[in-house]
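ENCODED BACKBONE
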Amino acid sequence: MNVLILGNGGREHALTWAISRSPRVGNVICAPGNAGTHRIARGFPLDLADAAAVLDVCRREDVNLVVIGPEAPLVAGLADTLRTAGLSVFGPGAEAARLEGSKAFSKEMMESEGVPTARSATVRSVAEAAKALEWLGERVAVKADGLAAGKGVVMASDRTQALDAVRQFVEERTFGSAGERVVLEEWLEGEEVSVIAFVDGDEVRALVPSQDHKRAYDGDRGPNTGGMGAYAPYPGLEGEALERAVQDCLVPIVRGLARRGVDYRGVLYAGLMLTSDGPRVLEYNVRFGDPETQVILPLFDGDLLEAMEATANGTLAQLPPFRIAPRAAMTVVAASAGYPAGADQGRRIAGLDRADDRGTALVFHAGTEARDDAIVTAGGRVLAVTGLGESLAAARQVAYETLASIHFDGMQHRTDIGARALGGVTASGGNGG
């Protein structure tokens, strides 16, 4: 089976790595890809916003399955275009992708389907926001309605901060058109957990739960990022607790979309807050999380390609239950200087040849490219260094030891990924999205 994986980040490197291990795989292409994916799959420049160009690649390369990594092409309807042309696609169509493309639509779906979530209001101006705060309370999460690369969220601890965030989104257009509308949510307290499931239109099967670390700096301080690290499994959300979360938080959305004539095929990601009153949905994503993918896939004990093909073709129920390896994984993101505000690019990366990508450590490339005889930085998040172990503590040790052997000028990373799960002290969670 020939597979085309679309994207160029750490998530796509992890997907390429996992799919390439399938005994059923033929040619693997990751486009545009990065320096890491190019080691294990073909890659070439490709504009994912150009559906005709993507379709041309599929026909030219005799592609049997397309896996769409990033959210933007999904929201733009690329999966619909490819399916209309007769291709099998792992990724939802544009109507389903509104769950991520519009936080306002997502909240409407949650409310109509009885999904537990925070109280919220959708506003278009500072004046509307001021009125909403009167009944929501002054501590709120301020979220840009549209796509903002995981960064369009401000946790406002008071009225002044909340209104200032709304002003930046709506009037100053910090995130462009994504901030035309803003969702205000009541502040929730608890632990934030990612639950990612395969959905084939009817069947919903969860993978191992994980916890992402969104804030830039140790102690969960600093601005939101695309994610500075993650670990799996998340302790305490397993067995019956996980199944209840799936039934309460994911299944109703799939059923609700189906009643509206929307056939969901791909990954459904629920960002949950585990509150004292039970799980509450913070957001839905319609693709694999990054960097959650880099810890979830190494724990998937099976043929990922087989599961993806079944999901795309609506036959997931015919497969045996997913198996999860009885071990732990942790990934730490190495980012460029200036991230998340910017990215210092073109810095030579040293030490990659000493990293073990066949045993207990995996180095997934995100923002990298090959230049002359070197691999250099080419983005904000550069690498996701994943450690595997029999316990979370063991996985953490491997990840940080491997990271210590890698260097590029300006490299920054958090030193406390997984610390709270291991008894360390960091700031309490909030609905940061």
Observations:
- The chain has 13 helices and 22 strands.
